[in-house]
Specification:
Layout lengths: L1 E3 L1 H9 L6 H9 L3 E4 H12 L9 H9 L4 E4 L3 H9 L7 H13 L3 E2 L3 H6 L3 E2 L1
Parallel strand pairs: 1-2, 1-4, 2-3, 4-5
């Protein structure tokens, strides 16, 4: 099982050439891939603000994600928010904190190119 952060999700689904070799191998060998629903929200905000252009609507993108067989989209529930708050990390981005909280709770690798996350979360892979 692995968790993808938002950038890794975008790279994997829309531009795999942006993934590192190690990231590609981790994703291809994973029997179960987890993302947070906060990543869909984060992507939608970037599209809405004109900071990201994707070739389909965000609704269609989310629908296609839900059809990927070994991909699980975890909702951000109360426990996830509590885990987020318990992180001993000064990082203020709620999406990053939520994704790290999920990976921490699951105890699995997190695919990320984000240096701040990688410096904090020891099971980061890139």
């Amino acid at each position: 099982m692995i968790v993808l952060d938002t950038a890794a999700l975008l790279y994997w689904t829309l531009d795999p050439r942006q993934l590192s070799t190690v990231g590609v191998e981790a994703i291809e060998s994973a029997d179960h891939i987890v993302i947070s629903s906060i990543s869909v929200w984060e992507i939608a905000l970037k599209v809405k603000r004109g900071k990201l252009d994707i070739p389909i609507s965000i609704a269609e993108y989310a629908r296609r994600l839900q059809m990927i067989e070994n991909l699980e989209i975890l909702s951000v529930d109360v426990q996830t928010w509590l885990d987020n708050l318990e992180l001993d990390w000064e990082h203020r981005d709620p999406a990053d904190r939520t994704i790290v909280a999920i990976a921490t709770r699951l105890g699995c690798p997190l695919i990320t190119s984000d240096k701040l996350i990688a410096d904090f979360y020891p099971q980061s892979v890139w």
